[in-house]
Amino acid sequence: MKMRITLLAVAFLFTLQGYAQGIQIREHDGVQQLMSHYKNHHQQTNSVKGYRIQIITTDDRLKMENALYKFRNLYPEMNSDWEHKIPYYLVKVGAFKEKLDYQGFLIEIKKDFPGAIPIIADIREEELLVN
Predict the structure, then answer these.
(1) Ordered structural domains, the chain, with CATH
(2) DSSP 3-state assignment of 20?
(3) d(Cα 27, Cα 32) in Å, to the nearest integer?
(4) How does strand 117-124 pair with strand 80-85?
(5) Is the pTM of the predicted complex or chain greater than 0.70?
(6) 56 and 91 in contact (C-beta within 8 Å)?
(7) Is the per-residue pLDDT at 131 higher than 60?
(8) How many CB atoms lie within 10 A of CB 80?
(9) Do residues 57 and 89 lie in contact, with contact meaning Cβ atoms separated by under 8 Å?
């Protein structure tokens, strides 16, 4: 009985394999153009490994918005943005090339944002802060 079931299973798998070999995938005309555009765009984006300072990580959107508002009022010349990685909201600020570049600012910002930490990030070259 077990031999019969095994033979039926093997025969079924060979049948499926035969059908799978006959499948053809046809992509829509616009898909190739879109993929080509996407690839070209990301190859042209000049990003480098650098550092940002993450001033808050919270699951409370209101706390995130308050921290971002406070930061933008204290440091209007510094770039800032937030990201939602479910379930957390992250506020990231600055764009530094080297560790030495952010250390003084990190000490200063910890007065208002004690949980601030440096993080490694991909940064567009035009965003980098020059001392």
Answers:
(1) 2-44 (no CATH), 47-127 (3.30.70.1070)
(2) helix
(3) 8
(4) unpaired
(5) no
(6) yes
(7) no
(8) 18
(9) yes
By DSSP bridging, strand 88-96 and strand 47-58 are: antiparallel
Take residue 6 and report the two structure tokens written for it. 């095994």
Tokens standing for residue 112: 């208002």
| Structure tokens, 24 | 């053809």
Cα–Cα distance for residue pair 52/90, rounded to 1 Å: 12
- Residue pair 89/117 in contact (Cβ under 8 Å)? The answer is no
Q: What is the pLDDT of residues 25-75, one digit of tens each?
A: 777 777 778 777 777 766 666 788 999 999 999 999 999 999 999 999 999
Question: Could you tell me how many residues make up the chain?
Answer: 131
Whole-Å CA distances, 74 to 68, 80, 88: 10, 12, 24
Q: Are the C-beta atoms of residues 93 and 53 closer than 8 Å to each other? A: yes
Q: Which two tokens stand for residue 45?
A: 């984006």
Question: What backbone phi and psi angles, to 5 degrees, belong to 22?
Answer: -90, 0
